[in-house]
Design a protein that fits this description.
This protein is α/β, with parallel strands linked by helices. It has two domains: 153 residues, Nucleotidyltransferase, domain 5; 154 residues, ATPase, nucleotide binding domain (Nucleotidyltransferase, domain 5, 2-Layer Sandwich). It has a five-stranded mixed sheet, with helices on both faces. Bound molecules: adenosine-5'-diphosphate and magnesium ion. The site of adenosine-5'-diphosphate has 20 residues, from helix 4 and helix 5.
Length: 327
């Protein structure tokens, strides 16, 4: 079946078209348009306006590139939450309008579930612990019996991507900040920062405040390097604890922060030391994208999680444990 997926929970508007045959994924197209800034962050109004301006064109471009027409689409899938209301509303209305106009079934999916499901299907993952790291999330998760997500550990305060973005902003850079911090860190050296692990959970606001307070006292490069070393080690430590606890032998990092090579390296080394299989997803599918929403739509459809999207309201807050419950 051919699925059209629409993403728009935050900074990126994207349309992906994928063909699924017996759980095998063929990516036909995956077009994205992301808001970036030279300095400072993003506002919800900016996000809504950006998505409204580009959603039609990005969908047309994705259809063209995939060499399919709307009539070939068997299912429309869109990100129903969590995220910024302004962006969610645009995608929601657009998906449902397409669905009505062309009489194509439509499914609303959970954004975090989609980050995980594209890794699962593309890499043929059976039973992994997933590290989901993005602007809004830092969670250690598994998918049980294809029908329920479990969260073993997470951040108690802010997400790692958000912390990296804030640190970059304080250093005078724009959005997204994670990539800038990674670049700076390449020329940095180590100094001590707070390290807060609480069982399976972590806290990042203490180390972030410390790093911001170090500006002017240490080189930017050293702040970036030391922040990454501490924060990623905290995350990898709890990830390893979850693998030991569950006895799972596969691991995969997903979400925008998974673009970071140092974090991926730490997780790979930890996996090798435990004789676990380390999966690395292609970078095209790590940051927000429409293809992941399409693959998630397939999974929801396959396992019967349709819900009544015309009744369901957008969900700006939505825990992944409830990902298969739309209402
Ligand atoms: N190379 C990188 N290293 C670390 N973080 C990164 C890198 N590239 C992007 N990021 C971070 O990824 C986050 C975006 O993740 P993504 O999943 O695309 O969006 P969202 O958090 O809105 O779901 C941002 O916080 C951004 O700074
Ligand atoms: Mg995301």
């Amino acid at each position: 079946m051919i699925i059209l997926g629409l993403e728009g929970t935050a900074h990126t508007i994207s349309c992906g078209i994928v063909e699924m045959y017996r759980d095998k994924v063929k990516i036909l197209s995956n077009k994205k348009k992301m808001i970036t800034t030279k300095e400072g962050g993003l506002t919800p109004t900016q996000i809504g306006e950006h998505h409204a301006e580009h959603i039609k064109h990005i969908t047309e471009t994705a259809l063209k590139e995939s060499k399919t027409s709307v009539k070939d689409i068997d299912l429309i899938s869109y990100s129903h939450g969590p995220g910024f209301g302004n962006g969610l509303n645009i995608v929601n209305i657009f998906a449902k309008t397409l669905s009505k106009k062309f009489s194509i079934p439509v499914i609303g999916v959970h954004h975090g579930a989609a980050h995980i499901l594209i890794a699962k299907y593309l890499l043929n993952i059976r039973d992994a612990i997933y590290l989901y790291v993005s602007g809004g999330n830092t969670q250690i998760i598994s998918l049980e019996k294809n029908t329920r997500f479990y969260v073993y550990g997470e951040t108690e305060d802010i997400a790692i991507g958000n912390a990296l973005d804030k640190l970059a902003r304080s250093l005078g850079y724009g959005f997204p900040g994670g990539k800038i911090i990674e670049e700076l860190a390449k020329k940095g050296s180590y100094f001590n920062m707070p390290y807060t692990v609480k069982g399976m959970d972590i806290a990042l606001s203490g180390i972030l405040t410390f790093a911001i307070n170090s500006i002017g006292k240490h080189r930017k490069e050293d702040i970036a390097f030391s922040f990454q070393e501490h924060a990623f080690a905290m995350i990898t430590e709890t990830l390893e604890r979850a693998m030991a606890y569950t006895n799972k032998k596969e691991v995969c990092v997903v979400g925008g922060v998974a673009l970071n090579n140092r974090l991926q390296e730490m997780v790979r080394i930890m996996a090798e030391q435990r004789d676990a299989k380390y999966h690395r997803l292609d970078k095209e599918f790590l940051g927000d994208n429409g293809a992941m929403i399409a693959v998630a739509g397939y999974h929801y459809y396959k396992y019967g999680f349709k819900g009544d999207v015309f009744k369901a309201k957008i969900k700006s807050r939505w825990r992944i444990e409830d990902a298969f419950n739309l209402e």
